[in-house]
């Protein structure tokens, strides 16, 4: 994260947004960054042709949201440089635009419950997909505040960048790191395949892939000697492993996809983890 760029958090004044604001303040303090709290006035599409600017009552509402957010932070932290601003436009678009100048963006996910747990929210999904900075997606849920930072290692794509960011998060959190390397092949039935050349070839491919991931892990660990880190290979689907691990982790770090940084998409694993895990860092 760039030293002089702020942590940016979006809020709409809701309870879940208040949790995100307080978590953003904690992150800003942890990394010694300024904090910028952003809220949006999103006029109805049909009204924009007439007057998209908010009324005086709406401006007062926006400023109240920002003031209440700032006061909530001051009740817990008194050493954070805080800026506030409101803008006219779609909330996700505003936060994506702001991410160009941010160390990270923090957004709240929807709450708990059988249905809500499956809905991370359109704003969070758009920001996690299109932002130029790392994105924290947080919800008040079941996680271990003293647990490790867990990072998912993919066999391809930006694994080094993701692992480096996870190492930095573990150092800042004062905790350990656990790197998970999972294999869908095993979950899909490798153990049930009949013995033969095909099964043996698949075993060799998996072993080679694991060696490559572990070699990268060892190389990155050498650049972070102050972080206690472990490498774990699990014969299961990556999505299941990371969601299960999120309950005992302080944070789960995922790559946005298995391709290059120019690809503005979320892979299936990252998207599933966003839907289910309490605290996720998307390694943009």
Task: Explain the layout of strands and helices.
Elements: E1 7-10, H1 15-31, E2 35-41, H2 56-74, E3 82-88, H3 91-98, E4 104-108, H4 122-130, E5 135-138, E6 149-152, H5 159-173, E7 177-182, H6 184-187, H7 197-222, E8 229-234, H8 238-246, E9 251-254, H9 268-276, E10 279-282
Parallel strand pairs: 1-2, 1-4, 2-3, 4-5, 6-7, 6-9, 7-8, 9-10
Antiparallel strand pairs: 5-10
Helix pairs in contact: 3-4, 5-7, 8-9
Domain UspA: 5-139, 150-282
Organism: Flaviflexus equikiangi
InterPro entries: Rossmann-like_a/b/a_fold, Universal_stress_UspA, UspA
Walk me through what this model shows:
Belongs to the universal stress protein A family. Residues 5-139, 150-282 form the UspA domain. This is Universal stress protein. InterPro entries: Rossmann-like_a/b/a_fold, Universal_stress_UspA, UspA. Helices cover 41% and strands 18% of the residues. By secondary structure, it is of the alpha/beta class. The chain has two domains: 1-141, Rossmann fold (3-Layer(aba) Sandwich); 143-284, 3-Layer(aba) Sandwich (Rossmann fold). Helix 2 links the parallel strand 2 (35-41) and strand 3. It is elongated.
